[in-house]
Amino acid sequence: MNSLADNNRYKIINELLKRDYCVGGLALKLNISEAAVSQHLKILKDVGLITGEKRGYFKHYRVNQKLLEDASKELLRMSETKRERDKLCPPSNKEDCPLCRKGLIENKNNF
Fold first, then answer.
1. Residue 14 near residue 4 (C-beta atoms within 8 A)
2. Is residue 59 part of a domain?
C-alpha cells in the first residue's frame, strides 16, 4: 500500500487504468520529469502493480488489473472487520497494558 501513498504514483495508476503509457507520455500528462516517472514506475513495478511491454524503442506500461482487484477485495474485507470492545483503562506508572499482562492478546507474528 505504501506504493500508492505517493500522490504521483496514485496519479500514474489512474492514468494507466485509462490507457497504456510510455515514460515520456506520463511525464507530459502529469507535468513531472521523465526521471521522476521512471522512479515511480520502478516502485510500482517492484510491487507488481504495473507491467511493461516493449514496443519498438519504447516500453509501455499498464496496470496489473488482477493484483489491483485482489488488493481492493482485501481492503474491503479489512474495512468490514468488527472491532472488539473492551473496558480497559490506559496503562499508568509504566505498567503493561492489562490485556498484554494477562496474556489475553495472541501474538500472531511471533514478535
1. no
2. yes
The owner of cell 470492545 is: 85
pLDDT in tens, the chain (111 residues): 677 778 999 999 999 999 999 999 999 999 999 999 999 999 999 999 999 999 999 999 999 999 989 988 988 998 888 776 666 555 565 566 666 666 665 655 544
Instruction: Say what the pTM is.
Output: 0.68
Tell me, yes or no, whether 87 lies in a domain: no
For residue 12, count other CB atoms closer than 10 A to its CB.
26
CATH number at residue 56: 1.10.10.10
Crossing angle of the two packed helices 7-18 and 23-30, in degrees rounded to 10? 120
d(CA 105, CA 72): 28
- Residues spanned by the domain of 47: 2-66
